[in-house]
Write the structure tokens for this entry.
Amino acid sequence: MNHDSLLGTGKRRVLFVLGSGVSLESGAPNVTELTKQILQADNQLLPKWFQKVGGDKEVYAIQQFLKLLIQEFERSGEVANYEDLFSMCQKLYEHEVGMSIDGTIIRFRDYIYRESAHLWRRYTDGGYLEEAPLGALSDKATILIDHCLKAILRSCDEPKGFELILETVMRLGADRVDILTLNHDTLIEAELKKAEIPYTCGFDSGLQQDGDVDFFDETAFVNSNNVRIIKLHGSWNWLRLGKNINANTTLWRWGMPNDEAECWDFLTDRDGERLFDSLLEKSTLTGTTTKTTAYTRGIFGELYMEARKILNQHDRIICSGYGWRDDGFNWMLKEWVESDSTREIFASS
């Protein structure tokens, strides 16, 4: 396909939509391999609190629980991946603690409750969420999946195969190109940084830097002269950080450690106050059946709105590596292309 035929006439000219397939050339594992690594996680991937005395038994229980969920999911005839597992665990946790009562999962929940009794029983003896042991097990499973995913993707730092994006930016300028990516890795950021191309993901030191952390500010996407990268599913290097204001108040913000940060386990603001990471809110939006709901919450809700705004500044989309499994995002693209007959979506290998 001729490069010129991919260039739109909209205000920003070219919008790239990237899925996990675009990262394979850089050595990033595919979804199947990620799932396998999580189910077989060793101490290099596991969070520190699973490495305490008895932690190996807890990890084993969680991984057996995930295998039980796989067996139940595959009754549908589909193969379960880490996103499906995260989604089921998240739904079970929110149901068990009363955050979201969903009548459609009652039979599924009751079956899993019975079959996993020997696994969640460890949380009934004064332990974590003792009044909702299945919720405790489900929540610990989401934490394990999230931490393992971050540990795996952290090592993916040698980008390859982004030539079309680089050529397009060089030809049109950073202010004429945008990227919507569903990937948690930071390969595209690394490639643009290496090429000295200015970009923003919404975490800019010039807007919301506070000590070791650059905090999210949606104004980074307004009238930007940079390549705008909207990471709809979050990123492995984002953190939900809290700061105690007083005995009754905690300030929570989404942030990303900057170049000033010497240790990610001990981040401080400009006043030297400790910032701590939330275990309850994950920085990677995963779960094939929970994405639509998650797009209404927190930073993901803000990014979803920014994505819709950016879409309307384009009349050409180039998709690469996207498997079309995100219902919420698919509806966004469907509405975009159907609302104007001049709009087109191209697939790029």
Observations:
- The mean pLDDT is 87.
- The chain has two domains: 3-27+157-347, 31-154.
- DSSP finds twelve helices and twelve strands in the chain.
